[in-house]
Amino acid sequence: MNDFTNALSAAICGKADAALILSEANRFYYTGFPASDGALLVTAKGAIFYTDSRYTEAAIRRLGGQYVRNSASMYEDLTAEFEKQGVKTVAVEADRLTLAEFSNLQDKLPGVTFLSDATLTDLIEAQRSIKMPEEIEKMTAAQRIAEAAFDHILGFIKPGVTEKEVGLELDYYMLSHGADALSFETIAVSGVNSSLPHGVPSEKKIELGDFVTMDYGAVKDGYHSDMTRTVAVGKVNDEQKLVYETVLKAQLASLNTFKAGVSCFDGDKAARDVIKEAGYGDYFGHGTGHGVGVEIHEFPRVSPASKAILQAGHVVTAEPGIYLPGKFGVRIEDMALITETGCIDLTNCPKELIIL
Predict the structure, then answer these.
(1) pLDDT tens digit string along 303-344?
(2) Could you tell me if 296 and 162 lie in one domain?
(3) Same-domain status, 38 and 179
(4) Quick check: 197 and 118 in contact, CB under 8 A?
(5) Do 42 and 78 fall within a single domain?
(6) How many angstroms separate the CA atoms of 275 and 259, rounded?
(7) Which CATH number covers residue 208?
(8) 162: domain range?
(9) Which of 91, 111, 129 is a domain's end point?
(10) Are the beta carbons of 225 and 217 closer than 8 angstroms?
(11) 8 Å CB contact between 309 and 261
(12) H or E element: which one contains 189?
């Protein structure tokens, strides 16, 4: 079907006779075709995408008729294909299936043994984490839309505008300037609410002296972007300036650490050490970053608990923050492409302190 499914077909050999992919994100990754329902069967002989009449014509246009089956009874069709190809062992997505879904598979497909450990999960995770040039192009295109939204919002933010209005303006701008969807629910918080790392935009009005933190992203051709910027309105005090400069220094330290062969633990530690040395270690509770791609959170995680090693082709965020309860918070986030010698910052957006 494509290089991705061919790679999975080769990788699954020797571990199982077939891989059965039911999750929407993984089906999209391997087919490039978005659908709310369906199944992708990958064997040594290739791949077959089963779907129903809602998607059949569109799937054939995208994938080619030789790969698509219009399936009114997917389990019966799978049983027939298993018998045809002599499939006895099928690897499934252990991290994606619910217990009810797995039980249903066992009931409807009694003639096979399901490999329900981490085999398929690990294979897919490893493959998806290394971005190909065409994937990076899509993520960069999504990021450019988000950056244009940032330029736009700087002229929109002012005292009296609510957090909800800022969030909605960002959303509308991205969706009306090329985004296929939003990466996630936009975070736009101000003043005391900016100390909430994942705060929800409220009716709070922006005030003079507030920090405004915006965490958001666009989706283009199925791939996500992710960025965060914190700006000030009118003025800042000494503590705000110190915290902002500390977060920026921490983020740059993490980005400067990123390269193939470096542990995600050390990528996190570089940022965390800067914040700790400035006396704010207790106010940075989340990980420094995460992978981005078809989903907004992917492998690897850049955190104190991570044992992963960065590889060339990983795209990860660097997003340290300091959050002072009842006062304010600051977070700065870029996406970076890992290379053998360092990283390429995919975020082309100012991050020095902006005072509107």
Answers:
(1) 999 999 999 999 999 999 999 999 999 999 999 999 999 999
(2) yes
(3) no
(4) no
(5) yes
(6) 21
(7) 3.90.230.10
(8) 133-345
(9) 129
(10) yes
(11) yes
(12) strand 187-190
Judged against a pLDDT cut of 90, whether residue 116 lies above it is answered with yes
80 CB-near residues (< 8 Å, 6+ apart): none
3-state secondary structure 48-110: EEEECCCCHHHHHHHHCHHHEEECCCHHHHHHHHHHHHCCCEEEECCCCCCHHHHHHHHHHCC
List the end-to-end C-alpha distance of the chain, in Å, as a whole number: 51
Q: Which of 86, 111, 129 is the last residue of a domain?
A: 129
Structure tokens at 137: 């192009």
Asked if 157 and 207 touch (Cβ cutoff 8 Å), the reply is: no
336: tokens are: 């970076």
For residue 21, the domain's CATH number is 3.40.350.10
209: in domain: yes
Cβ–Cβ under 8 Å, residues 78 and 109:
yes
Q: Check whether residue 179 and residue 296 sit in a common domain.
A: yes
Interval 41-53: pLDDT, tens? 999 999 999 999 9
Please count the structural domains in the chain.
2
Which has the closest alpha carbon to 218: 227, 229, 208?
A: 227
In a domain, 354, yes or no: no
Residue listed under structure tokens 């899509």: 138
- Give the pair of three-digit tokens for residue 162: 């609510």
The helix (run of H) or strand (run of E) holding residue 248 is helix 238-257
**pTM (two decimals):** 0.95
